[in-house]
Amino acid sequence: MGRIVASYVTCNSIDTIESSLNSVIDLVDFIVTVDGAYVGLPVPDDHSFDGTVDLVNSVVGKKGVLIQPEERLTEPQSRNLCLQFVQGRFPEGWMFWIDSDEVLHDARDEFKWLHKQENSRYQIIHLRRDDASAYRWYGYHLHTSLADRTPFHPRLYGGIPGLHFAENHWTLRDRSGDRVEPKYASYTLRNAWLEHRRGTRSRKNLDAINYYNTYERWKYERTIRPLKSYIPYPLERTTKDICYRGHIPAEHFLHFVFEHTWGGRTRD
């Protein structure tokens, strides 16, 4: 009843994951960690080699499990490994997503309330995220003070059938293929919040990972959902970057893209 399972996807996160684990280990019932380098990550080994695995095992102990895939996976595939494990072992529990560079604060009372919930099915719980870049990304531009921690993000999922990451690492769908967020009842924890630490992330590594996530999304759109989305690439993120770096007029680039992707697929 009301079990909470924290899920991590990590690789070489020894600088940040210890503080993250210590912030949640007394509040959750189990911790699942998938350790492995993503497809496209420019590192020599397929798994962590900086001591992250030993650190996770020493902190978590018998209260968790660490999974190392035999081959490199994309970020959505790695997250789906966590989902498959939790859905098989804790089908009635809460799935709690947290990154290795996030620290949970002020959640003891609210997580106690979650533990007491007899029915965690078909529901989403939102948490605050204290992250200046999130304010800029979502258009807040720091008009509200950082103490308010205004942006809320879905982080706990309860009893959603067939929950899986589809075309990228932020789009969750259920068994029928529908987006999860607008379809299920949601609740917001007002006091708990996540401190997001981005200082250790490499721009080069993120660019490589985003390239392969884009490729996976294109395959998904082309094979699984060909009639719901006619544009196979996430143009909203790549168009501006390509035009800026290549000194290409935006209208010329967009004309080329729509002529060779949207128009061609629509005619087919």
Low-confidence stretches: 137-147, 227-234, 262-268
Q: Indicate the multimeric state.
A: single chain
What is the CATH topology classification name of the largest domain? Spore Coat Polysaccharide Biosynthesis Protein SpsA, Chain A
Overall average pLDDT: 77
Give the N-to-C terminal Cα separation: 50 Å
Number of helices: 8
| SSE class | alpha/beta
The largest sheet, given as strand count, sense and whether it forms a barrel, is: 8 strands, mixed
Helix coverage percent: 25-40%
The level 1 CATH classification of the largest domain is Alpha Beta
CATH architecture of the largest domain: Alpha-Beta Complex
Protein model, in words:
The chain has 2 domains: about 5-195, Spore Coat Polysaccharide Biosynthesis Protein SpsA, Chain A (Alpha-Beta Complex), CATH 3.90.550; about 230-268, no CATH class. The chain has helices at about 15-25, 50-60, 75-90, 110-115, 130-135, 205-225, 235-245, 250-265; strands spanning about 5-10, 30-35, 65, 95, 100-105, 125-130, 150-160, 165, 170-175, 185-195. It is α/β, with parallel strands linked by helices. Helix 1 (about 15-25) runs parallel beside helix 2 (about 50-60). It contains 8 helices and 10 strands. Helix 2 links the parallel strand 2 (about 30-35) and strand 3 (about 65).
What's the short story on this structure?
With 268 residues, the protein is an alpha/beta fold. Helices cover 36% and strands 21% of the residues. It folds into two domains: 4-196, Spore Coat Polysaccharide Biosynthesis Protein SpsA, Chain A; 230-268, no CATH class.
